[in-house]
Amino acid sequence: MRIIAPLLCGLIFGAGLLISGMVQPAKVLAFLDIFGAWDPSLAVVMAAALAVSVPGFRLADRGARPWFAGQYFRPGKSGIDLPLVAGAALFGIGWGLVGLCPGPALESIASLSPGIIVFVGAMAAGMMAHDVWQQRRPNAQRDRQLAGATDG
Amino acid sequence: MDNFTPVSAAIGGALIGLSAVLLMLSTGRIAGISGIFAGLLNVRGEDKSWRIAFLAGLILAPVLAGLIGYGMAQPALPSNWTFIAVAGLLVGFGTRLGGGCTSGHGICGIAGLSPRSVAATVIFMVMAIVTVAVTRHVLGG
Question: Exposure winner among A24, A32, A138, A147, fewest CB in 10 A?
């Protein structure tokens, strides 16, 4: 079950992106284009997802441990700091350039579209570049200890 | 707004939320795609099996949909590969620095009532809207 459960969750997540149309960059860009032919669908996707996940996470808060694991892995940080603001801003710019965020990009890998492969390769390179840069910073050790668990 | 598809958006969104809740209740993990993927890239020996299983499910979804006749159109992307690569680098670096993406902060973080995730979601939404406004309406892309 430790493998089957996340596999099924990935399938359900992928089905959600497919049915909502969010796997199509054009649909996402149409939501972000508020000065053009605006498509509010992504707002409905977010609202529906939160309508399920907010009560669902409250349920998880009440349980002592998950069904198939020893503990919950929840983010340790709660404050708003410069890395969060800068990182979210950079991600937003990249997302707005082509309409791809990590979920739909990885889901579309099987299409073998050259553009998707270039995007996912660059995304992996950007992630690894960040981790190398973090490890070389003088205060990196202290920061890692302060950070505790990582975010999603 | 003639491209608005509220019914499929609501059904799809509910499934995304359901997936995040089931992953948390079953394995105790956050369904943050950038975090799940980044965890596969580092060399440290943390548990990778659940990450591989989740991403395998995500990639299999459109393959299975194609087998039952709901084939997905090829994603429409710009033809300029340098442009795509810059976007990918920004998404990769930014999601690591900011600790999450649309799923980790936007769905799971907000569902966990984290002020950090609310702030991140507002910032990346606003920056993406500004980016689209500039590329489409100022530069006329």
Answer: A138
